[in-house]
Amino acid sequence: MNTPPTDSEMYASKANMNAPTTDSKICGMGHSMKRKEDPRFIRGRGNYVDDIQLPGMLYMDIVRSPHAHAKIKSINTERALKIPGVLAVIDGPTLAKYNLHWMPTISSDTQMVLPIDEVMYQAQEVCAVIATERYIAADGADAVEVDYEALPPMMDPHKALAPGAPVLRKDKKDKKDNLAFHWEAGDRADTDRAMAAAEVVVSQNVYLPRIHVASMETCGCVADFNSAEGKLTMYMTTQAPHAVRTVFALVAGHVGLSEEKIRVVSPDIGGGFGGKVPVYPGYVIAVAASVVIGKPIKWIEDRMENLQADSFARDYHMKVELGAKKDGTMTALRIKTVADHGYANASANPSKFPAGLFSICTGSYDLKHAFCEVDAAYTHKPPGGVAYRCSFRVTEAAHAIERITDVLADKLKMDPAALRMKNFIKPEQFPYQSVLGWEYDSGNYPAALRKAMDTIGYESLRKEQQEKRARGELMGIGICSFTEVVGAGPSKNFDILGIKMFDSAEIRVHPTGKAMARFGTKSQGQGHETTYAQIVAQELGIPASDIQVEEGDTDTAPYGLGTYASRSTPTSGAAAALAARKIRAKAKKLAAHLLEVREEDLEWETGKFFVKGAPQKSKTIQELAFAAYTNMPQGLEPGLEATHYYDPPNLTFPFGSYICVVDIDRGTGAVKVRRFVAIDDCGNIINPMIVQGQIHGGLAQGVGPALYEEIGYDEDGNVYGGSFMDYYVPTSMECPSWETGHTVTPSPHHPFGAKGVGESATVGAPPAIANAVVDALKHLGVTHIDIPITPEKVWLLLKEKGAAE
Ligand code: CDP
Fold this sequence. Notes:
The chain is of the alpha+beta class. It has three domains: 23-47 and 503-646, Aldehyde Oxidoreductase, domain 4, CATH 3.30.365; 53-152 and 219-300, Aldehyde oxidase/xanthine dehydrogenase, a/b hammerhead (Aldehyde Oxidoreductase, domain 3); 313-425 and 443-488 and 650-800, Aldehyde oxidase/xanthine dehydrogenase, molybdopterin binding domain (Aldehyde Oxidoreductase, domain 4, 2-Layer Sandwich), CATH 3.30.365. Helix content is 28%, strand content 25%. It has 20 helices and 35 strands. The site of cytidine-5'-diphosphate has 23 residues, from helix 15 and helix 18. Cytidine-5'-diphosphate binds at residues 526-528, 531, 563, 566-569, 682-687, 690-691, 694, 754-758.
């Protein structure tokens, strides 16, 4: 009797929504509602993993390798086990007894949990100490004596891929080289022909170094195996609780941990940015320890462990070539990349896309010929490839195309804004089929760039720059007009370890008209408790303050693939709207029953149904909710709830134009970002304040990699950037007062016309800053600088050009 809503009911509100259509009591989409989660956060009442205390809980600390490559000759635990409070030391051979010393990575590669006889990167887990207190566990870890025989490490991915290089992954039967994968997109021969025919070709090597998500909260868990029930409850810092539960069941099913016996709870999370998608060995060791010892085990990484052992992104060496006509029309793009994945390919990329969505590298431009390829190398670095606040390698792609566009502008002596305007995909070309296979849903790139130029006063800035240059001052203006691709699925193309990518929402309206909404995603600070409530409020007219949002508990939330790659709004956000529309369709039946009219005679106005032509005859959603439990018509299923699993027909393609102004100190080489205008377009906006916050945070996370951050290694495999003493994350002192704005180009296929936004600024900011620095120095003959553009790098360059003070 519950007939599903029609297509027109389901997909009813895709119109351009520049202003809210609900009042502030309901607080639907478009209101800058204050975040519902903040009262607990600002009172210090959040519930993070390290806040969890369980009776009898023990603590785990990890012994890590000081070598990038070494043979383990022996592990002596005698001294450690003599420390009062140290209960056990778990090593590779212990786990091997249960066949738990290896695990799959999220990219279907394999990775050691604990080694038997060889370590493959510095800071690799060697064994774990379990004790009654955290600091006793740390003392125990210090007391474990490991005898290593150091072996030569392979730190250079190019050397690793060279013929005859020693094979690193000897554990892989028949592996004869260090190629983790080769992937390509586009037509190589066609692109070669177009490149050969181009009137102008520019070429640039661009390196995006290894960086770290450096979230405020490190990784950790409390593994609680209840031997009486045979059930594992795993409180952990994960962005994808359901996928992790399934992976645990697949890996540990043979020791009795089947999926219904595993509950993964992801409580409040202090930033994830992709780094909390993979499963790290520490989680697995904690589970094994809890199963063996029968007590809850807490493991929380310290900052140096976090920076040295997990959550790495980028490490892409790209050769970028762009062909064009003399008038600036871009004709062909070719990119060859060597990607350093470290010891294992542990990136969370969909199976069909081992190099992520790198093939968005044609960016915002109407390029007819393009080819890109990626060779991924194994080296003796920690497993890398995390999609740090980016939709699987989009940051790398955007950096490549936006940098080479400026190189072309320089070569042709064209203004970089004019060159972009000339080559943009035009608004009337959408939906646009890119030569590398994407169907861009909607866009208006000239409008965003024009708005950015007007906001910053582009033409007068160019004059200011000329005057300053004449006085010997170094000022640069950098532009980035990026296109993003977010919202994985569609399930036909996207999966993680074979699990198809879609997402879910379940809404229950209680008899008193309040509601509970649960999702398969998991906020890490993005404000989902607020924005999901606003979506439901928009659709049902129940005030957002009356809607409780829950995520992250696999025992209660509907199955979903989690939150990363700005996918929550495009997937679960859509599911929320469609589940709400199912509820509205049922509420209509109840209204027809109560008002004694046919359903066709009813009209919806936010929060109530009324009889056409007799608006005084109406029933509010709250009255209808009560009736769903107290006065439903015979034959209609009681209750008022719905679940929707949303499999998007396409990704969404947010975009933006950023312009930044930098000043460079000729005495120190320091780059100061003086102004930064960010115009973003994420379609219809749910909460403008939250979107602005997302952009502010993302821009700061763009300044970091652009100017300061790098995890590097010397030839012996020793890390630099492994602590906050030498991994410089920007503070508010390094950030300008951001100037943000937006244009609105709704997504035509999303149920309420929204696109994701979470990572736009992290993608768009680094090339804008790099372009600005090069622009400041181009009269000195500088055409490119790799990020991070540190004062040292700039000063040495100035010295070389005779321009240092
Ligand atoms: O997946 P993730 O939450 O990281 O990214 P997102 O879907 O881009 O959303 C980030 C935050 O911005 C969420 O709170 C969204 O609800 C909000 N947002 C919005 O208010 N309007 C949009 N059009 C897109 C996102």
